[in-house]
């Protein structure tokens, strides 16, 4: 009974943070559907029953459809990173819907491969933006005690969308599927409409009264005593001092010399190698070309059924990684590249370094997705899988000997570099 009471009190205290996190992640769920669209759709687009007026697409055209999402990812990461800082987190969340809806509309009404190239570019833009803006928003509004749990929702939401997308895209018609999923866009706008801007951004822009109201909302603060009110005001004042002081000294704190220190150079090199291995292993290519891969393998199972199984494994892996990252450390969980980069970089430059590394990650992913279908034709499926397997083995050996362990590392931003 005491445990239930504690859980209820915690839920009541954090209910607005939980609601806000679930609301903003509606678009990541829909984004998962957008990525899932590719795998079941490419075999249809390459067949004689292609829904495009221009007829069946070629392997070259399929490779462009698969890879353009990564170029959009680079654009979205930089664009929405700037927007979140310049116009606010909430407005940036609203703006995510523009390329996202554009993707679904082009899937619904596109008649040529070029339309699908643009659609996937827009999908990457909204996805890259979502994975920049939403973590910032959630980190801003979350209490320290549940920040990790709320931060993991974005990955779970995306992979849930991926799995359900594989299921629906495999069983619904090409034209019906986007007409159903585009409805999530309206649901998303309605869900985030009532959310205040984050207190941190409001303090940064000198809107102190709004910041106080936003903090009261996200902390679900209801002062019952003078002591509680005083504690809240002290907390708000500390935030103001920290944020205003940090903004004032931001440029002075970081210079190009910080990126040339041994720890920074070592961190960048390790991060880039990890990101290369993440993509060269064929992980993202498998998600995008799953149906084609299983069709070429000669499996007796329906390729789309195999795709659904892969999506289920991906979702289970997400739950496993989320629950055990602190227990196993970085050696056991290389599928979490952004987490690892953050932890092995000197904290002084980690934000800038993560943005740079993830942009390089998108470029590598573009190259892999572009050449993967062509390699499957030229080298055969077994040849491509053999190359990916060798990369995985060499990567595992290299990571074992050269990857620094981050479990229990002190992430104090004032630590020496």
Concise summary:
Helix content is 78%, strand content 0%.
Overall structural class, as computed from helix and strand content, comes to mainly alpha
Major sheet characteristics: none
- Approximate shape: globular
User: Which CATH-level-2 architecture of the largest domain?
Assistant: Up-down Bundle
Q: What's the helix-strand series?
A: HHHHHHHHHHHHHHHHHHHHH
CATH class of the largest domain: Mainly Alpha
Strand content: under 5%
CATH topology of the largest domain: Growth Hormone, Chain: A
Number of domains: 2
Could you describe the 3D structure shown?
- It contains 21 helices and no strands.
- It has helices at 2-24, 26-36, 38-45, 59-86, 89-95, 97-109, 113-141, 147-151, 153-171, 176-181, 183-193, 199-204, 208-218, 226-253, 262-280, 283-288, 290-297, 303-328, 337-344, 350-378, 380-402.
- Helix 6 runs antiparallel to helix 7, helix 15 (262-280) packs antiparallel against helix 19 and helix 20 packs antiparallel against helix 21.
- The longest helix is centred in the first third of the chain and has 29 residues, at 113-141.
Keywords:
417 residues, mainly alpha, Growth Hormone, Chain: A, 2 domains, globular
């Amino acid at each position: 009974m005491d445990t239930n009471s504690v859980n209820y009190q915690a839920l009541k205290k954090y209910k607005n943070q939980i609601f806000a996190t679930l609301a903003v992640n509606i678009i990541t769920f829909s984004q998962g559907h957008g990525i899932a669209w590719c795998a079941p759709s490419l075999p249809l687009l390459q067949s004689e029953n292609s829904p495009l007026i221009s007829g069946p697409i070629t392997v070259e055209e399929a490779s462009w459809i698969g890879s353009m999402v990564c170029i959009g990812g680079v654009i979205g990461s930089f664009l929405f990173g700037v927007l979140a800082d310049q116009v606010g987190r909430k407005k940036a969340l609203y703006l995510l819907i523009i390329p996202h809806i554009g993707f679904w509309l082009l899937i619904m009404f596109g008649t040529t491969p070029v339309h699908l190239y643009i659609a996937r570019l827009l999908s990457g833009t909204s996805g890259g933006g979502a994975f920049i803006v939403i973590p910032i928003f959630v980190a801003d509004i979350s209490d320290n005690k549940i920040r990790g749990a709320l931060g993991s929702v974005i990955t779970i939401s995306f992979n849930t969308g991926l799995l359900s997308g594989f299921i629906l895209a495999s069983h619904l018609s090409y034209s019906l599927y986007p007409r159903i999923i585009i409805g999530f866009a309206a649901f998303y706008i309605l869900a985030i409409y009532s959310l205040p801007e984050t207190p941190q951004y409001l303090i940064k822009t000198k809107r102190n009264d709004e910041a106080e109201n936003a903090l009261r909302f996200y902390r679900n603060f209801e002062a019952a005593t003078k002591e509680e009110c005083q504690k809240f005001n002290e907390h708000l004042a500390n935030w103001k001092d920290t944020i205003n002081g940090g903004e004032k000294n931001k440029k002075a704190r970081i210079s190009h010399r910080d990126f040339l220190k041994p720890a920074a150079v070592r961190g960048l090199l390790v991060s880039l190698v990890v990101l290369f291995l993440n993509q060269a292993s064929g992980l993202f290519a498998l998600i995008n070309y799953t149906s084609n891969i299983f069709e070429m393998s000669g499996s007796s199972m329906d390729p789309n059924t195999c795709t659904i199984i892969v999506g289920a494994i991906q979702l289970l892996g997400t739950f496993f990684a989320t629950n055990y990252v602190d227990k196993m450390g970085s050696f056991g969980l290389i599928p979490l590249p952004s987490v690892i980069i953050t932890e092995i970089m000197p904290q002084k430059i980690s934000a800038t370094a993560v943005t740079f590394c993830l942009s390089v990650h998108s470029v590598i992913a573009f190259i892999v997705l572009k050449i993967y279908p062509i390699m499957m034709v030229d080298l055969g499926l077994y040849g491509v899988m053999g190359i990916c397997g060798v990369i995985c083995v060499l990567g595992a050996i290299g990571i074992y000997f050269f990857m620094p362990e981050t479990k229990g590392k002190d992430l104090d931003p004032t630590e020496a570099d």
